[in-house]
């Protein structure tokens, strides 16, 4: 028995096959090529994406031939939307999550309905990225395509559709459309009616971990599956990652340290408060049964280290090549000891929560002619972590307490960075036996849904392991608390200047 977890992102997709103990027996990835037809626009040929997804499924099945897959589930990026006619053909390229063409539609919602009402229904702070705006844009700007439109699918349910199963979307990804009632856990007739679009466009919604069918026998043969492989609802990528990291109770959160850094805590009821709305924190169903979650993130996460590598890291790249090491390990290991004397505001690709400031810029504060490369690198690691700590503190003031974090993603491979994070957060940070936690979360959902495990809890107990816990050092934490108070003053001090720039 093995289980396949898939993750469909905006630039590529991966499939991982796990055994019952959580060992990855096959792991495959392919990139596809988004299109940028106009400034700020991001599109994807969904058929091209499916061709890449088909390849990773075939390759994963071949590698796992000795232990065939019995069930699968998929996670996917939020907000991105596929537009199909009645025969399943695209009427327009898929519009990806951060495509900015829908600003006018978001402005319409604010003027006609208001942020507060939208949040109370959908749990989503009003933003242009949400899928319902994309459908409205097709209606307003591409009427010939809208006339042929019959199905609007996110990439989770699109994958199921291509596997020959009637498309079903899970609650967590449905919520990212801004057309879903997160309290009633059903499509919102009010939001869909206000948008002036067809209710029939949306697929059925079901909880994560619901068996929705089997892979079509002909398609199964083409992709290397045996007969009878069960298809199970997965989830939005962030709560799927949280599930795969074992975030199934309040008080802990996953810290996904990738290009974008995102923390996802869990709680047991929808916190649809004005304060959460004002701070731009969404509220929506978790992939773990009966729980809700939010996401707090910084768009400039690990990408800031990549920026340093590409522009200033020539020596580190050469050293890494000579020593056969990862260049990021070389960069991080060379960071200064103790808190850096400079501070970096990591808004190099705008800000995330709580500001949602599209005009935000990065800043380096406190430079002198005595500043060293080692201090600059340390300030990068600290700045990204201070930004997440700011979100942790704001969430705590809203009743979302985070006592422990579990790290995933590329940054989780660095013990030194995890120790820095623990010292800054003042909370333990754990590393896990798996980096692809989103795929593991989906595999656990598939296993529990099909009876391979008695519950999600049993699945995670068997597949997930905490490898190491980094405890905060009290002395370093005290120093970082002082630096953090200075850090929090940077954004409000520079906000007006950055907007003028």
Tell me briefly what this model is.
This protein is of the alpha+beta class and 501 residues long. It has 2 domains: 2-243, ATPase, nucleotide binding domain (Nucleotidyltransferase, domain 5); 297-399 and 471-500, Nucleotidyltransferase, domain 5 (2-Layer Sandwich).
Query: What structural category characterises the helix and strand content?
Result: alpha+beta
CATH level 1 class label of the largest domain: Alpha Beta
| CATH architectural label of the largest domain | 2-Layer Sandwich
CATH topology of the largest domain: Nucleotidyltransferase, domain 5
The CATH homologous superfamily of the largest domain is called ATPase, nucleotide binding domain
Average pLDDT reading: 95
How many domains make up the 3D coordinates?
Answer: 2
Radius of gyration: 22 Å
Helix percent reads 40-55%
Largest β sheet strand count, sense and barrel closure: 8 strands, mixed
Number of strands: 24
How far is the N terminus from the C terminus?
58 Å
Low-confidence stretches: none
Q: Beta-sheet strand percentage?
A: 15-25%
The best one-word shape is globular
- SS element count, helices: 20
């Amino acid at each position: 028995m093995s289980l396949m977890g898939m993750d469909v992102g905006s630039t590529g997709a991966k499939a991982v096959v796990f055994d019952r103990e959580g060992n990855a027996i096959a792991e495959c990835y392919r990139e596809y090529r988004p299109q940028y037809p106009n400034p700020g626009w991001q599109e994807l040929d969904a058929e091209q994406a499916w061709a890449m997804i088909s390849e990773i499924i075939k390759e994963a099945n071949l590698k796992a031939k000795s232990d065939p897959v019995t069930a699968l589930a998929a996670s996917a990026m939020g907000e991105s939307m596929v537009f199909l006619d009645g025969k399943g053909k695209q009427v327009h390229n898929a519009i990806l999550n951060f495509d900015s063409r829908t600003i006018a539609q978001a402005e319409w919602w604010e003027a006609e309905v208001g942020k507060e009402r939208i949040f109370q229904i959908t749990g989503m702070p009003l933003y242009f990225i949400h899928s319902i705006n994309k459908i409205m844009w097709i209606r307003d700007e591409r009427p010939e395509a809208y006339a042929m439109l019959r199905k609007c699918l996110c990439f989770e349910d699109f994958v199921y559709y291509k596997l020959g199963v009637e498309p079903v979307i899970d609650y967590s990804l449905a919520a990212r459309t801004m057309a879903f009632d997160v309290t009633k856990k059903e499509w919102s007739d009010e939001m869909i009616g206000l948008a002036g679009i067809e209710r029939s466009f949306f697929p059925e919604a079901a909880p994560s971990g619901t068996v929705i069918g089997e892979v079509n026998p002909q398609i199964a043969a083409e992709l290397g599956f045996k007969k009878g492989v069960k298809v199970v609802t997965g989830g939005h990528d962030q709560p799927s990652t949280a599930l795969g990291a074992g975030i199934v109770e309040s008080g802990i959160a996953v810290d996904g340290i990738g290009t974008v850094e995102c923390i996802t805590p869990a709680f047991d009821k929808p916190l649809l408060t004005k304060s959460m709305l004002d701070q731009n924190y969404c509220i929506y169903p978790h992939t773990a049964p009966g729980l809700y979650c939010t996401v707090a993130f910084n768009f400039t996460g690990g990408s800031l280290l990549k920026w340093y590598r590409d522009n200033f890291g020539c020596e580190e790249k050469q050293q890494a090549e000579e020593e056969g090491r990862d260049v990021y390990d070389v960069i991080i290991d060379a960071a200064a000891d103790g808190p850096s004397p400079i501070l970096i505001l990591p808004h190099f690709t705008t800000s995330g929560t709580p500001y949602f400031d599209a005009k935000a810029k990065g800043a380096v504060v406190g430079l002198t002619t005595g500043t060293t490369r080692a201090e600059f690198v340390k300030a990068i690691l600290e700045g990204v972590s201070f930004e997440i700590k700011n979100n942790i503190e704001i969430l705590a003031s809203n009743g979302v307490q985070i006592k422990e974090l579990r790290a995933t993603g590329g940054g989780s491979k660095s013990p030194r960075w995890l120790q820095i994070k623990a010292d800054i957060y003042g909370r333990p940070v754990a590393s896990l036996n798996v980096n692809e936690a989103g795929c593991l979360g989906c595999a656990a959902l598939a296993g529990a849904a099909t009876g391979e495990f008695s519950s999600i809890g049993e699945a995670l107990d068997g597949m997930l392991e905490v490898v190491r816990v980094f405890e905060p050092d009290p002395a370093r934490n005290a120093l970082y608390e002082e630096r953090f108070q200075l850090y929090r003053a940077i954004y409000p001090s520079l906000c007006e200047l950055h907007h003028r720039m």
